[in-house]
Specification:
mainly alpha
Amino acid sequence: MRDVAMTPSLEAPTPVPFRGGLFTPGTNRIAGALALAGLIALWQAASSLGLISPIFAPSPLRVANALTGMAQSGELQNHIMASLGRLFGGYALGMTGGVLVGLMIGLFGVFRSAGIAVVSAFFPIPKIALLPLFILWFGIGEGSKVATIAFGTFFPTVVATYGAVDNVDRSLVRMGRAFGLSPFAIIRKIILPGSLPGIISGLKIASSIGIVLLIAAEMIGANQGVGALVLAAGNLMQTDQLIAGVVMLSVLGLTIAGVIGAIEKRLLAWR
């Protein structure tokens, strides 16, 4: 009896299920597409049943016809290209400057106090309120619109960048120093990879702010662009074209978010 009790069991060990996947970030493209399709179908059904006035909210079919008509005439492409040039020009300037200044504030104490004070003073100012001043400085053309977008995207990028640098685990920095890494190597191998998620999140927010400023700037002083299209359609009560412009803005925002998401997936593949 004693020898039997001491004999090790030859049975295969029972596998333990993985329990570390709770609340893991993930997306389901099919669910997202179904949600949008369901919303459009509900909108079309309400319009067909007369529950929504076509004057205030035309059906998706009418909006699609308006988009098709503008695309065939070339008007749609002209508006989109004008808006894209302004948005990417201003966003590139604001993003580049914001990341550089945010890194300087986060990494170097000599810049921190002065940088945070300046950012805190200018960040709350509604950037579209400065458009008349930019028009005086840069003229009524493209310069004032690009400057408005750049100025508006610069400050949230700065805040997100130095906040992301501050959130890097300092024990990793101390460990790098203990292993003899140079300050440049610590920045390149520890701080930059650790702060990238927060920086990219700030870039996503800044892109949405850039689209808002783009439309506001085009409504004030532009003949071409999605904002000018939306303003003109609203003044003429052409609600199908107005909503078509809003749809273009939604597609533009989704496209930019998709591009940033693809970059994020590539840069943060190590996570």
